[in-house]
Amino acid sequence: MIIGASVKRKEDPRLLAGRGCYVDDVRLPGLVQAALVRSAHAHAEIGSINVARARAMPGVIFIATAADLDVAQPIPVRLGPRPGQRPFLQFPLARRQVRYVGEPVTVVVATDRYVAEDAADVVEVEYHRLPPVANTDQALAPHAALLHEGGTTNLADRLVMGTGEPDAALARAGIRIRRRFGVQRHSGVPLETRGIIASYDAGSGRLSVWGPTKVPHFNRRVLSDLLGIPADRIRFIEPDVGGGFGVRGEFYPEDFLIPWVAIRLRRPVKWIEDRREHMVAANHSREQIHDVELGATTDGRIVALVDRICVDMGAYVRTHGVTVPELTGALLPGPYRIPHYRAEIACVLTTKTPTGTYRAPGRYEGTFVRESMMDLLARAVGVDPVEIRRRNFIPPQEMPFRVGTAALGVETVYDTGAYASSLDAALAAVDYPRMRASQASARAQGRHIGIGLACVVEKAGLGPWEIARVEVDKAGRITVYSGLASLGQGLETTLAQVCAEELHLSVEEITVIHGDTARVPVGVGTFASRGAVVGGSAVLLASRAVKDKLLDRATRTLEAAREDLVMERRRIFVRGVPSRGVTFAELAAASVATEPGISATQIFRVSEMTYPYGTHVAVVEVDSGTGHVTILGYAIAYDVGKAINPMIVDGQLVGGLAQGIGGALLEEMIYDSEGQMLATTFMDYLLPTAAEMPHTVSIRILEETPTPLNPLGIKGAGEGGTAGAGAAIANAVSDALGPLGVEVVSLPLSPDRILELIRSAQTHGHARG
Predict the structure, then answer these.
(1) Would the N or C end of the chain have less CB density within 10 A of its end CB?
(2) pLDDT tens for residues 606-630?
(3) In a 3-state reduction of DSSP, which class is residue 686?
(4) Do the Cβ atoms of 243 and 633 come closer than 8 Å?
């Protein structure tokens, strides 16, 4: 069996040997480099822009401002566009106003990056400062400064979703718990920053674009519309990618500017983002405030949940639209039966960097809120946090389960799930009874040990379709073409395993092609944990079609019944008579009169998402003298339906956990009252290292509830390791410091914040923060 085997990744040998090709590795004759003049102000009118000094510098080739761009349309929304969002979309260069620090104002092109940056430094932009809108309270206050011309509010959108009659149910509830929770602004910080290279052939009118993008076909359509040239004259080529995580691959201003300049100059142009640019210009995410109320019976069964959510969108609505807030509301109920539910979501514009998705978008935030409330409910009832979850799980026999919400144009209907089983597996991994006993002993010694739980329901496999083509050429070589893109998740290995299973081959015998619009003309791309679910299913269908063609032709060639044929090692022979056979190459060569080899193209269509799920358990120790949190142990049990490659799934979960730990303990994009970001280097924006990872991470990959929604039965695994980390660690810290009167209601749990909570509890007897 190839599917289900922990096959080593096909991608790794060349990457580990340094033979990868990233966007900055692309070298073209006559290449010039670009730098951007970015706003130093959070909110200002643009007066004059004087480029005379910069233009006169040796090596400077070209300078453009918004007045030079022949583009009338802003960058569109990719996921869930809504008509009311249009006034808040971003143009490639600022026009009349800047609305966040880092907004592009001018593009400068020179013989090399050093000259371009020096020239950018002497471009003189006259700014007339306007009041910053530093947070959502300011943005929604009466007489607030309006960020967009012609607008009457800084509210970009308002979403309401839910089911039942939550207000009436709350009024009848025996237990009512209210809290305000906050999740800080942070973002994916890939090892490789963004970059793009564009080259224009004036003779053919063709534009080639290299850049790490998860949705090359969408980006090509947007670029075609903005430039006004046919999409079939634009080729997107995906190099290797040094991390995606949601932050990379959307259509940013630079993705228009660099191709536009290349066409104007008739020569290749490169732009590579530096780290400070990444911190102030690439999508941020996560910043939300939740005012939530939960109602339950006196024995702890939830009857209602109402959450009023305020989301800081930054200065513009970017290509993700309101996807993150929508997903927060849609999946906030999690694995629990909540008969009466409402989420009211305000999507608010401020003078900060615009936002987008980051691994487990919306679910990281919602899981923190929901799972914190579950622990508070357990405390109110007087039972263990494990028991309160068991009492409220949706049981397997109620699947498929309609939650009563929707996101991304899809109703939230859990396909399959055995939530108590994943909880049991995670508890067994840490030996929960023993851990509670050890905690009691440690507390007697004055140590602050805490155990935190988080039960997660994720989404995966967003449609509407994906394409795959499988070919056997006349030499017998097998190639898989996919509309997906690789972001480092082992795509080539996974798709090769699916094809190899059907054609009875080894993974090494299959070549996977992706991320090149000249070789794969259509596709949807890689996001929303859809690669293996939708793209893998398309490969399965195409592989089966090729297998059928091979067997049909072999039956005629060998004059044998199909059921008597055996396929093995690129050869088909008659069962029991190995010498009587024919190779794939011979079958493909015999077909050249009608087609160049044997091939099949299949589109897998899907109208529903799958919902993987699991449980996180964190064991921490908090130093009450320094505020430092040490993660002593961590366990994740996660049901993916079926694991194509368990080793890759394990890596996805552990890698996702590392990012979740960063969000729980370290990472925060802090702004001052003037809208200036205070964390633009790794001295200020702290990332988790190996030292912050727990020494023991137990991963239990479950395959108990395969989905009926695709032929592989798989659910996706890219985001489950992140989604529950903030909640589990926060609950563990609350558990550790509970005897001191500390209650965690906001992230990150940095040492200074924990010390302030302890000091406040010592002064007032209780502290929330």
Answers:
(1) N
(2) 999 999 999 999 999 999 999 999 9
(3) coil
(4) no
